Prior knowledge:
mainly beta; Porin; eight-stranded antiparallel beta barrel; elongated
Amino acid sequence: MKAVITVILTQIFFISSAFAGESNEYGVKFGVISTNFEYKNILGQTYFDDNRIGPTMGFYSQFFNYDYFNIEGGLFYLQKGGQEEIAETTVSRPDGTGDYMTHDIHFDYLQLEINFQPKLNNKNTEIYGLVGLGVNYLLKIRNAFQADDNFNNIIFSYTLGAGIEFKNILDKPVLLEILINKDMTNIYTNSDSEFKFQTLIVRAGFCL
């Protein structure tokens, strides 16, 4: 089932890109993301408080390109997650040995996103904002604290950010972006907790 949905999301992106027209911009973006869990817990417990750094990469295409704004779609792989320092214990030292191990949990997502981009142009650069929505499909979980089937496979998110396009560095434009991506729906819910991701994304890109 996951393979079918992955193929469907990929086809949606590339079919939509075909309708963008030859005159519009398309290319690749890649970078790093810093994620942690945003959670509500009625017991006051905390989980995976440390941010986790992971990769992101994918393709983008502009569907409409006007003087002051454009609409951009993208299909991206994101590796979200969290980390927690856990005290090592033994039978003789149940309160801890003084050593710690890092529990590293991460989630592989395929994100289909659509962004509205207001922009300001001059001769050498283009400065733009990003306001958009995303559909995140869960591909895989590693080192989960619960069984995989307890997590929601489809998560909706929103994105806010800004970017700059340098027009004359290479033969093709080069992009730099910084974004905040926050989940609108829970990745996991139990009787006392709700979990979402909040993500900081820094990525670069270039046109093809």
